[in-house]
Amino acid sequence: MHTTASSSMALSLYLHLLLVLSLAVAEATVFTLQNNCRKTIWPGIQAGSGKELLRNGGLRLKPGEVVSIRAPVGWSGRFWGRRGCSFDKTGKGTCVTGDCGGQLHCSGAGGAPPVTLAEFTLDSPMDFYDVSLVDGYNVAMSVLATGGTGMCRPAKCVSDLNRSCPRSLQVTKDKQVVACKSACMAFNTPEYCCTGAYANPNTCKPTNYSKIFKKACPSAYSYAYDDASSILTCKGANYLIKFC
Ligand SMILES: *[C@@H]1O[C@H](CO)[C@@H](O)[C@H](O)[C@H]1NC(C)=O
Ligand SMILES: *[C@@H]1O[C@H](CO)[C@@H](O)[C@H](O)[C@H]1NC(C)=O
């Protein structure tokens, strides 16, 4: 009798645990990072304030490699790609673009601009996401929502902005364009940075520079007050983030 009672209690505990686990699994969001570039990419991940740091903020992704990362409900943060990195065994080193303070694991630090960003705010109550060129461009990125409901359109900047980058915004290494600065970073004026008298969407309009970004990447966020069409929504999805 005693045995039966305790085993049925164990069974109900077990079922309860299964339920809790399946709920957790159903609600968490899976980010799948895929490196389509011909060279290794070192993705960086920065969590929003108070949110869980995923993968200690950074990892290495060889060409063709795919990695899945589970984010808790309500997570927010951004992904970017670091290029041309070399790290020693302790994880110290540098990257040509997107460096986060000379470490493989960014541990909360962001990437040095110019960097292409994939930004997410999950479960609020929908997921909001975009690919942003507000901090410039250093690698082609795309975000594809899978299995969600709603609009769930792809966010991407897959055109080679290195090539259309105006000379005054170019970042070069060994005479090659390796990244494209935002006009804000290059000129640091209120008009380009949407600060001061330009700190609102009525006064901060697209500029000749942001228009070049918008033309190359229509679904990406091209400056601080770019129209809301660049912020996409979906619910209950997982996300594939492709580099190149
Ligand atoms: C941009 O520049 C980098 C570094 O030269 C290069 O590897 C890459 O292929 C270029 N194009 C894109 C789309 O990032
Ligand atoms: C953008 O406009 C500024 C100010 O009018 C001008 O100095 C600059 O050359 C223009 N740049 C491009 C790439 O059109």
TrEMBL record:
<feature type="disulfide bond">
    <location>
        <begin position="157"/>
        <end position="217"/>
    </location>
</feature>
<feature type="disulfide bond">
    <location>
        <begin position="100"/>
        <end position="106"/>
    </location>
</feature>
<dbReference type="InterPro" id="IPR001938">
    <property type="entry name" value="Thaumatin"/>
</dbReference>
<protein>
    <recommendedName>
        <fullName>Thaumatin-like protein</fullName>
    </recommendedName>
</protein>
<feature type="disulfide bond">
    <location>
        <begin position="194"/>
        <end position="204"/>
    </location>
</feature>
<keyword id="KW-1015">Disulfide bond</keyword>
<feature type="disulfide bond">
    <location>
        <begin position="85"/>
        <end position="95"/>
    </location>
</feature>
<feature type="disulfide bond">
    <location>
        <begin position="152"/>
        <end position="234"/>
    </location>
</feature>
<feature type="signal peptide">
    <location>
        <begin position="1"/>
        <end position="28"/>
    </location>
</feature>
<dbReference type="InterPro" id="IPR037176">
    <property type="entry name" value="Osmotin/thaumatin-like_sf"/>
</dbReference>
<keyword id="KW-0732">Signal</keyword>
<dbReference type="Pfam" id="PF00314">
    <property type="entry name" value="Thaumatin"/>
</dbReference>
<comment type="similarity">
    <text>Belongs to the thaumatin family.</text>
</comment>
<feature type="disulfide bond">
    <location>
        <begin position="165"/>
        <end position="180"/>
    </location>
</feature>
<feature type="disulfide bond">
    <location>
        <begin position="184"/>
        <end position="193"/>
    </location>
</feature>
<feature type="disulfide bond">
    <location>
        <begin position="37"/>
        <end position="244"/>
    </location>
</feature>
<dbReference type="InterPro" id="IPR017949">
    <property type="entry name" value="Thaumatin_CS"/>
</dbReference>
